[in-house]
Amino acid sequence: MKPNLRRIRNLLFSFALLGSFFLQNGCAQTNKSAPFLKQFTPGKMWPDVNGVHINAHGGGILFFNDTYYWFGEHKSERTSSAQVGINCYSSKDLYNWKFKQVALPVQDSAGSDIEKGSVMERPKVIFNKNTQKFVMYFHLELKGKGYSAARVGIAVADNVTGPYTYLRSLRPNAGVWPMNMTDEQKNAKATLSDFPEWWTKEWRKAVDDGLFTRRDFEGGQMSRDMTLYVDDDGTAYHIYASEENLTLNIAELSDDYLSYTGKYIRVAPGGHNEAPAIFKKDGTYFMITSGCTGWDPNAARLHTAPSIWGPWTQHPNPCTGPDADLTFHSQSTYILPVEGKKDAFIFMADRWNPRRPIDATYVWLPIQFKNNLPVLEWKDKWDLSIFDE
Ligand code: GAL
What does pTM read for this prediction? Predict the structure, then answer.
């Protein structure tokens, strides 16, 4: 080959190489080398340490052995139903996250509760000091049944990242009355068929008086959006949207966190709360919830109580500023106490993207306090030093 021709051939070869590099790395969203992050940018794509947008939606975080573990729903491009399972990421600094593994994979076997195509949402993991096991609860809907099953799934693992062993699903507290229901309410005769029309004054009163609690007494109470909370004394609670999402329940878990003690209360009957997230500061319990508008955002609600068992009081929306009425286009999922910092709590929320679920982003904001009540303010970017101010 003549030297000129060789030069041209080499040049063409270099262009081809460069082209394929850009195709693989430049255009595709994955495999970009990730920047080292030093701040949060709410609502933006959040690359993990491999440059791939974090896939852990509706999640919760467990701090264990000096590391944060983020568990969340794997979401795919076209559907919000579970195609992969519950993902687990880890981080030391809360900004830079490493994908560890699918902590609880969907199962292949037809008829399994957690079959591919079921709905596995809002997973939360807690550590049980007595048994040294990690316990995961999540909202489960059975494949092909829409959101009618309204069950909680329970899984357990010896290692924090899993794999988690799926144990069972259930509707909590079958055959048990809530502690804050009166005898009169328990014995009331009204049933759903007495109210052909919903949202009337009479219907609201009947809901308040436990219409749905009575309906579901035998089979257990419905359980959809949920979180877990471990109190200072190690007692754990499952907080879930019940009664057709009309009423929240707070239910105490057994010592091993694998079942219920039967102690539970109804919170904000008929209040239509979802997406509960909770924390405690100076002896007061704070719970932030959303209203019920599916994937569309709405205004957050704030509830406080001097004891987990109430009485719970509702306050105005804790969000302020532009888009406060839409919780900055997001919905609560968890409130994370930052390790080693006093009174430092991060409000974690999801900005859903039902058309491309995998691209849903995360809205993390610092919880500030005014008159001892949490306040959420939009920030384009922020870092943990905000808690030192
Ligand atoms: C939301 C809920 C999400 C998901 C969605 C389905 O209200 O918070 O977790 O269940 O509805 O439409």
Answer: 0.91
